[in-house]
Design a protein that fits this description.
The protein has 328 residues and is α/β, with parallel strands linked by helices. The protein has one domain: CoaB-like (Rossmann fold, 3-Layer(aba) Sandwich), CATH 3.40.50.10300. The protein is built from ten helices and 14 strands. The chain has an eight-stranded mixed beta sheet with strand order 7-4-1-8-11-12-13-14, with helices on both faces. It has a two-stranded antiparallel ribbon with strand order 2-3. α8 links the parallel β11 and β12. It starts with a helix and ends in a 6-residue tail after the last helix. The N terminus is likely disordered. The protein binds ligand 9Z3. The site of ligand 9Z3 has 15 residues, from α4 and β11. One of its GO terms (biological process) is coenzyme A biosynthetic process.
Length: 328
């Protein structure tokens, strides 16, 4: 438990601790060493081959209410943005570290999970008792399977997962620091929906909170601004793209701009909860541009991530060649 004196030293006067203090006060996930070993091996492999690498974060973090967790607060995100984007980056020759919320959507398998179809509906039983893919799904599944197998057999896709906010923050710090050895050819695509509020370990109930005391009042602390050290220290040379989710249209661009100014990274992609699948806004220090799908594109099942990624590839080429976004 921190003393009053510690708190005065470590927080910003509004009760928000800094990221270093967060990492001192919270325990790392038990599989952090394994996460780091796999990430280092993957990054080294692609460094030797000069392949650009993108770290994609995807899905929502949870904030537990109890140490022995029965209840938790979740963040909205199915993992669609991240998993579709991973496929588009792979198609464009990027190696992908896909850091996702456990059991959220993953590249390629997303076509068959979390749908109204049970996976068994894709199969049929032949008369002699063999299992086959139902003919009406077979062609599309063969295409998806081939892409998935190519990505895995060429070591282009590393799947890593997280569940809690703490899990996410420790892995984000380790992952970005390992990626930093790639310099400007690293891209960070921060699409995960990350909690803004949490209960610090020392204030958390150990056991399941009991209902006998009546209504439950929760006080949550603010999560430290981890994008600050990410931009200035952990991932200093790479191209950093964060996402900003809002529900009030008026706030989207001002909040995105505020984030750019506060953290000093290169691009914020703003999206509204209700329209995120058909329109996003790219915000850089000197520009603001809406990217949308036309009705025809929507009718043809074009995914907005193909447009997001083709924009980002231009920015990344400029970034790799001269360290700015100009001339993209
Ligand atoms: C996003 O804005 C993502 O695009 C979505 C994707 C979460 C909306 P789905 O996974 O949804 O396709 O269902 N992600 C960033 C959300 C976030 O927490 N951003 C922080 C903020 O807005 C900054 S890192 O402050």
């Amino acid at each position: 438990m921190a003393t009053m004196h510690d708190n005065q030293l470590l927080d910003n006067g509004q009760g928000v601790i800094d990221p270093d203090t967060y990492f001192l006060r919270n325990n790392p996930p038990s599989n952090l060493a394994e996460f780091e070993a796999k990430t280092s091996e993957f990054v080294q492999y692609h460094k030797e081959r000069n392949t650009p690498v993108v770290l994609i974060t995807s899905g929502g973090t949870i904030v537990p209410l109890e140490n022995q967790t029965v209840r938790f607060i979740d963040n909205f995100s199915a993992g669609t943005r991240g998993s579709v984007s991973a496929e588009k980056f792979l198609e464009n020759g990027y190696a992908v570290i896909f850091m996702h919320r456990q059991f959220s959507l993953q590249p390629y398998s997303r076509h068959y999970t979390h749908s109204t179809n049970c996976f068994l509906d894709y199969m049929t039983l032949t008369e002699d008792g063999k299992i086959e893919v139902d003919a009406k799904y077979a062609a599309a599944m063969a295409t998806t399977l081939a892409k998935y197998q190519k990505a895995r057999s060429n070591n282009m896709l590393l799947l890593q997962d997280f569940v809690t906010l703490s899990d996410y923050l420790f892995k984000l710090k380790s992952g970005t620091r390992i990626m930093a050895t790639l310099g400007r050819s690293a891209m960070y695509y921060l699409a995960a929906a990350v909690s803004d509020f949490f209960i610090p370990t020392e204030k958390m109930a150990e056991h399941k909170i009991q209902s006998r005391d009546g209504a439950l009042t929760l006080t949550l602390d603010q999560v430290p601004k981890f994008l600050k050290p990410l931009v200035s220290v952990w991932a200093s040379n790479g191209l950093i793209v964060s996402f900003k989710l809002e529900t009030d249209e008026k706030l989207l661009v001002p909040k995105a701009r505020q984030a750019l100014e506060k953290y000093g990274h290169q691009i914020v992609v703003g999206n509204m909860l209700t329209t995120r699948k058909k329109t996003v806004t790219f915000i850089t220090q000197d520009s603001e541009r809406i990217v949308s799908l036309s009705q025809e594109e929507l009718d043809n099942d074009v995914e907005i991530e193909s447009k997001i990624i083709s924009e980002l590839l231009k920015y990344h080429r400029a970034w790799i060649s001269h360290g700015t976004l100009e001339g993209q």
